[in-house]
Amino acid sequence: MSEQAPLITMQLMGKNYRVPAGLTLMAAIEYAGYKLVRGAGCRGGFCGSCPTLYRREGNHRIFTALACQTLVEDGMCLVQMPFVPLITRPYDLYTITPQANTLLQHFPEIAGCVACNTCTRSCPQGLPVMDYIQASLRGDIERAALLSFDCISCGICSSRCPADIKHYAVGLLARRLYGKYITPNAPDLAERVAAIETGDVTAELDTLMALSATELRSRYEQRTFEVVAEQEDPYSATRSYNSAMDPVDYQDELEVSG
Amino acid sequence: MEISDGYPAAMRQSIARVEATRSARLGRTFPAMSLDERKALLLSHHPDYKAGAKRPLLFGSGQGMALNHELADLFEARPLVRASLDLSKIDHDVDLLVIGGGGAGTVAAIWAVKAGLDPRKILVTTKLRHGDSNSTMAQGGIQAADRPEDSPAQHFLDVMGGGHFTNQPELVRALVQDAPLIIQWHEHLGMMYDKDASGHFIEHPGGGTSRNRMHSARDYTGLEMMRVLRDEARNLGIPVIEFSPVIELLCDDEGRVSGAVLINLETRHYHIVRAKATIITTGGLGRLHMQQYPTTNHYGATADGLVLAYRVGARLIDLDAVQYHPTGAAFPAQMAGLLITEKVRGLGAQPLNCDGEQFVFPLEPRDVEASAFIRECAERGKGIKTPQDMCGVWLDAPMVDLIHGPGTIREALPAMFRMYARFGIDMTRDPILVFPTLHYQNGGIATDEHGATSVPGLYAAGEVMGGVHGKNRLMGNSLLDFNVFGRRAGMAAATYAREHPAGKLSLAHVAAYEAMLHDAGIKTTRTAPRILPDYRGKEALDRYLDIPL
Ligand SMILES: Cc1cc2nc3c(=O)[nH]c(=O)nc-3n(C[C@H](O)[C@H](O)[C@H](O)COP(=O)(O)OP(=O)(O)OC[C@H]3O[C@@H](n4cnc5c(N)ncnc54)[C@H](O)[C@@H]3O)c2cc1C
Ligand code: SF4
Ligand code: SF4
Ligand code: FES
User: Among the four residues B84, B222, B247, B256, which has the most C-beta atoms within 10 Å?
Assistant: First the structure.
């Protein structure tokens, strides 16, 4: 039997609505009768289009969340933020080089960071945002890239920052510089691309294209499979690129929602 | 209801059985099916073969194609504008119009610039924000045969077999042959793919692949790709209009596509775009909720592009086949339908029934795997029931850390881990409940290997196009496909735009479509494209008054 959820009261844009407990903020807004145009994108925690500000009863703080990833609470008072305006200077990644001051040159405002940690506290992804801004300021592109990797550009941090920093744009440039210049290029890839460009793979594909349906089927059934088991395990934070250096501790999140 | 660590007591009992069999299952995998076994299972349990779920299309170039009712409804619907709409004032006069700011559209616009078009003479228009799309949501990865053990020919075989040999071979050839070029382009754009210390990609297996060729960026592969592509497009100065979906294409007096009508979702103004070439990259259809399945897709995935293209007479292909991803979240209810990436199985997690037993090879092609889950729940009654009356099978997530070492889940699957943690479940300790979810369109607008549709001036790329994957797509081939065909369509459309001046705008095809509806005896007040699904609560809608304000 499906159980009926009890109703709770939440305040949306200053008005009270009764909605079933257990809904996400986004589902509750829709339940209340709003058809969303802004404020909804992926509906799964990946696009950052649903940043929401709210207060809780009996608490002086402002909380921030993704509407699609957060459950309603009784007495919560919320508003959705459409977006945080962003204007950045264009750059050409092919001509800039990763120097210690590259990020600072492109985003001079990071020098104004007062280390208040508001960005970190407000990030719905639980990222150490202040740390990646500080790393950018020090010219540690690698650290900035790795710490900001899970950023979904929701802009919540930027809306709260007293220094008006565009955190997600800083992280993005750090990651592109890291991906392009600091990580070594894949050796096999370059060889394969060269082979394709000189037409070395053409003959084999021509052969397959010329096969009859039955011949193609039997070629498919006779495929050999790569053995996976004996590989050296690639997941080691010290040996591989693009692995989290300071794995964020989600224990808090587990306790809050548990 | 008693909940412990995220699960109610009844589900905990089944989890205990999963834990009891875990050590014996390590290193022992259920055998894969033969082609004949696959076929029998699909016929008996895949939603595509469900009796009564489809009806044939009654008119137009796709007449006779059997479509799910939800999709057929869109074709059998009236246009949102009349043929008499005033087209005299052109708001944007451009060389290239790209409809849809997801992956394919952004790639197409970038490559049109690389092929010589002035970025200021390109317009990208999109329904929500630039990048709010299925592309951003892709987690698992992108295929490309770039290791010495692998080859484009091997990739070709996998794609053809995965699609049950219904694919268009020349499109598959383009896909596998361009794949390494695309990955290299991404490397040059600074995308952070997972690599080992010497720069080799860390490549995983995927359902239906015979080599490890899945490149990923943790489990945020699509997010990383989309934000880099969007940044590149911005840096090139390509104009993008957000919250302005296309509601109808425009033709010239010779029937060539020559632009579109956009609607500003907030002010409801329409805009007329005249373009020498037009590319449709509107993505998929998950939000139609075929057969009432939940979906993994983003809010704007409502098949608009198919409707737009059909109205100007473009040929469609393979739309009878829809992809249900085997592993959609089935619990907790707030996550219903959200995608659990195939990478979880790629890293060793096994699907299990309520008794903790394996019942299927973990990495069959998606349609086969999904059918096996449906059979386990429906026919065999071995699924696990949730308090909301959903049914699912277990995916034994903790095996990933057992096989690859503690910390792997957090490092390789941070999005998955974070999503479950938000709803109180720790997937490093407990299995997760899954059931098939509506995921991918498979078929779409028919094109040649340069993205050209059957209508001059109109190109298509990405999920909205059909033929590459035949009737079933393998994981990692659609991120690839939007790059390969986005690039090809962008370059081909740039050439077309240089050679064909824009003509006089017309909506004659809208009048013709209305006439076809009439002749087919279809009387309806339904309109299409759908633009956005409606999730407003029933209680609220019951009291809704449509009054002028
Ligand atoms: C959750 C999830 C996970 C996935 N994981 C993988 C994976 O691991 N590997 C893989 O290869 N593939 C994966 N896929 C599939 C893949 O992401 C998509 O098929 C692919 O990104 C589609 O790209 P696209 O550019 O064609 O469409 P999209 O990226 O969806 O872009 C379409 C755009 O068009 C816009 N649009 C729609 N209608 C209109 C209109 N009328 N006017 C203007 N604009 C419009 C939309 O708003 C959207 O921005 C996944 C998909 C989902 C949903
Ligand atoms: S909110 Fe702004 S000023 Fe405060 S720590 Fe973060 S970046 Fe620095
Ligand atoms: S770093 Fe800022 S923009 Fe990125 S996810 Fe966190 S709050 Fe959002
Ligand atoms: S809607 Fe995309 S993150 Fe919430």
Answer: B222
